Amino acid sequence: MSRRRRHPARRAALAAGARAALPSLPAVAVWGVVTGVAMVKLGLALATSLGMTFIVYSGTSQLAVLPLMATGTAVLTMVLAAALAGLRFVVYSAVLSRHLARVPLPLRLGTCFLTIDGPLAVLMQAQARGTLVQRVALLNGANLVTAAVWCGSSVLGIALASLLPLGPELGFLAVLALLAFAVPMLQGRPAWSAAVASVAVAVAAADWPHRLGTFAAVLAGVAAALWMSPRPPAAPQAQPEQAG
């Protein structure tokens, strides 16, 4: 395919990815505002809050680390907490590897950094339609609009933190936002297994100290998804040659 023909196809896929991400953007905006407010309410400076928004780029990891930062917990413990909160990205990387293995390294790194729940759902719904260039462009179209809404809403939450209470009402909106993220991704046995396992462990471990129940639920969900994921067929064994 000529470059002249490939570029319009790439632009069309970018636009299609952006359109496909639109239904998830209200949830992204709510989650971003809640995270922005929480960072300021827990005592983070403006520069630190903005840095976490643009560099960490993960509401779950940020909210897992914030209480630890407020109490002066050791840095290693905070890094471990953020890693555990982001364990779902281990599963995401297995999905992305099928599409990004032959993509140039700079584009691969940028795409992986920006890919969160909503854009990955867009890619999963597209399955194997289109060329590799079109699938990557579709994913990045969803990535770009999601990143813009996330960063903008987080900055808005930081700016309006003094006007918005960090109470049960705002927390309930955050829960609804997470549900809006999660429900469209419940497709197939691995996703449902992860959901059932994580919910069961979260309920059973709700009273564990230091939010360890949340981390245990994440581990259970990732383990269940990996266990239920289809295995590649084993390579056939070579038959020994007959002597003679």
From TrEMBL:
GO terms for biological process: L-valine transmembrane transport. This is Membrane protein. PANTHER family: INNER MEMBRANE PROTEIN YGAZ. Belongs to the AzlC family. Its main location: membrane. Keywords: Cell membrane, Membrane, Signal, Transmembrane, Transmembrane helix, Transport. InterPro entries: Brnchd-chn_aa_trnsp_permease (IPR011606). It comes from the Bacteria. It is found in: Cell membrane. Residues 1-29 form the signal peptide. It comes from Pseudaquabacterium pictum. The chain crosses the membrane at residues 36-57, 64-85, 136-160, 166-183, 212-229.
